[in-house]
Design brief:
Peptide Methionine Sulfoxide Reductase, Chain A, 6-stranded mixed beta sheet, two-stranded antiparallel sheet, alpha+beta
C-alpha cells in the first residue's frame, strides 16, 4: 500500500514538472518574433492587457480615433482559450483588448499613454480587486519601433514614480476574441455591481487624467 508521504512526493514531482513545462512554453511566447498586423481599410490594430477587459474596452472606446475595442485573450501558449480556462492561470493568457484605430487621428504612442494613465502601473498580476496572472498587465508590440516606444515610456514612468512598473512587454502573436457576452459589457450592463463599483470609477479616473484625448460627447 502506497503511503501518504509517497503519494505526496509523487504529486509534488508531477506539479513541479507541469510548472516547468508551462514556464518553458510561456518563455517561448516571450522570445518569439512579433507578428505585424496589416492595415485594413486604413485602420490599425493594437493590443493591451490591463486587468478586467470590460474596464479596458470602455477606456479605449472613449478615445478619439478609436473605432472599436474588442475583448479577448492574448499572451499565452494554448489555442482557443476561454474565460473559464484563462481563469485557471494555466493557459498563459491574460484578458486583453484589440484596439482598432485610425493612425491618422491617434498614434500608437498615445494609445500607450492611455494604457498607463488608465491603471495602477505598479500593481503586479492584477488591477484593483482582480488578481491573478490572467489579469496581469501586458503591452504587445508588433515591430521594433513599437517596442522602443513602450520601453521608453515604461522607463520614464518608472523614473517619475520611483517604482518598478508591472507591465510586461510581449511580442504580439495572436488575439483570441472572447465570448459574445463579454463584448461591450460596461455599455450593455451599466447597473451591474462590478461595473458600478469598479469599471465606471476606473473609466472616470482615466477621463479626468487625459481629457484631451477623449471623443466629443454628442
Amino acid at each position: 500500500m502506497r503511503t501518504f508521504a509517497t503519494t505526496l512526493i509523487i504529486a509534488l514531482l508531477f506539479s513541479c514538472q507541469n510548472t516547468a513545462q508551462i514556464n518553458k512554453e510561456q518563455q517561448a511566447v516571450i522570445d518569439a518574433d512579433p507578428i505585424e498586423v496589416p492595415l485594413e481599410n486604413g485602420k490599425a490594430k493594437a493590443y493591451f492587457a490591463s486587468g478586467c477587459f470590460w474596464c479596458v474596452e470602455a477606456v479605449y472606446e472613449s478615445v478619439k480615433g478609436v473605432e472599436e475595442a474588442i475583448s479577448g485573450y492574448s499572451g499565452g501558449f494554448t489555442d482557443n482559450p476561454t474565460y473559464q480556462l484563462s481563469n485557471t492561470g494555466r493557459t498563459g493568457h491574460a484578458e486583453a483588448v484589440e484596439v482598432i484605430y485610425d493612425p491618422n487621428i491617434v498614434s500608437f504612442e498615445t494609445l500607450v499613454d492611455v494604457y498607463f494613465a488608465s491603471q495602477n502601473p505598479t500593481q503586479v498580476n492584477g488591477q484593483g480587486p482582480d488578481k491573478g496572472s490572467q489579469y496581469r498587465s501586458i503591452i504587445f508590440y508588433q515591430n521594433a519601433e513599437q517596442k522602443q516606444i513602450i520601453e521608453n515610456k515604461k522607463a520614464a514612468l518608472s523614473k517619475a514614480l520611483n517604482a518598478k512598473i508591472a507591465a510586461e512587454v510581449y511580442p504580439f502573436q495572436k488575439f483570441w476574441v472572447a465570448e459574445d457576452y463579454h463584448q461591450n459589457y460596461e455599455k450593455l450592463h451599466p447597473n451591474n455591481g462590478y461595473i458600478q463599483n469598479v469599471s465606471i470609477p476606473r473609466l472616470k479616473r482615466f477621463q479626468a487624467a487625459m481629457p484631451e484625448v477623449l471623443k466629443e460627447k454628442h
